[in-house]
Amino acid sequence: MGLKIRLEWYDKETELGEGEELSQDFGDDGSVIEALGMPIENNINNGGFDVGPHWVNTLQPHFLHVIRLSTYDYQVAFIYRDKWKIRMSARPQIRWSWGCSAAQREQAPSPQSRYSTWILRR
What we know:
Blueprint lengths: L1 E10 L5 E6 L8 H5 L12 E3 L5 H4 L12 E10 L12 E4 L4 H6 L10 E4 L1
Parallel strand pairs: 5-6
Antiparallel strand pairs: 1-2, 1-4, 2-5, 3-4
């Protein structure tokens, strides 16, 4: 139970969502929000925030997806739940669109790996 960060990335031309990933559960620790220069108050469960270059170094360690601002537009949301739904894996879940490259699909870890379950969606 606790705080997770949702990273979403969008095609720069079409502005369509390409994927999303949830971070691990931070519990009640909001220090990552403060590290981004934001107050915790009024920023949890309050929509998405555009990711700028000065946020990448703080956010990247929490995600498998490599943040490439030159390729995608990104938003993060800070989500708190008393109880998160149980998933097959305790690791973050990544969702890819069918538009991802073959190389990205080949690099996707298997569901049995220590990383997240990758789900392709239409």
